[in-house]
Amino acid sequence: MKKNILIIAFIIVHFICTAQEDQEHFKHFRISPIISHTFIPVSTNEGDETVIVPSFGLDLEYWITKKWGFGFHNDIELETFEIEREHQLFVEKEYPIVLTFDALYKFKENWIFVAGTGVEFEKNENLFVIRTGLEYEVEFGKHWDVAPTVFYDYRSNNTGTFSIGIGIGKRF
User: Fold this and answer.
1) Span 66-90, mean pLDDT?
2) What CA–CA distance (Å, rounded) separates 104 from 114?
3) Residue 117 pLDDT greater than 70, yes or no
């Protein structure tokens, strides 16, 4: 028990010490609208297919240090579509909204690993979501960036979806 408390205390002290580096120039908040496409596997009578659904998103992030942050990543899938469950039941999805709370880790100069959990809200059913992904931020201008993204969402109905997108971010 004491060992766990010491490890947690060390992590907190590390975050506080590194957060004070370049404090006057480091921008902690980032907002980024995203446009993407979500690839959703579906089963039909003719076999397995992939439905490609356009999506809009809004990422709200807070960076504790230059390497660590957390964010709310929010997406709305802009189509109505059906998925088959148990080879008989069809579930219609109407403009699902995916909200996730993610940990962010910048492991290389511009590469960011994203991992978190959230919920897909939809009129017919709500699903638990586990998200992982990568972003690559390319800075331009004063505190602006463009960020291609790739995410994998595991949804509690045993569906895994991929999304590929691009966002324009602003730090402040």
Assistant:
1) 80
2) 5
3) yes
**pLDDT single digits (tens) 118-161:** 999 998 889 999 999 999 999 998 899 999 999 999 998 778 99
pLDDT of the residue at 163:
96
**Burial class (CB within 10 angstroms; exposed 0-12, middle 13-18, buried 19+) of 45:** exposed
* Separation of alpha carbons 56 and 40, rounded Å: 15
Identify whether the C-beta of residue 59 lies closer than 8 Å to the C-beta of residue 74.
yes
Question: What CA–CA distance (Å, rounded) separates 39 from 54?
Answer: 9
CA angle 147, 149, 150 (to 5 degrees): 165
What per-residue string of b and e applies to 158-167 under the rule 16 or more CB within 10 Å gives b? Answer: ebebbbebeb
Give the domain range for residue 67.
26-171
Q: How far, in Å, CA of 44 to CA of 120, rounded?
A: 22
Whether 90 maps to a domain, the answer reads: yes
Classify residue 70: in a domain, yes or no. yes
Q: Which residue has the tokens 């992982």?
A: 132
Structure tokens at 133: 């992904």
- What is the model's pTM? 0.80
Q: Does 130 fall in a domain?
A: yes
Domain assignment of residue 18, yes or no: no
Q: How many CB atoms are closer than 10 A to CB 116?
A: 18
Q: What is the DSSP letter of 110?
A: S
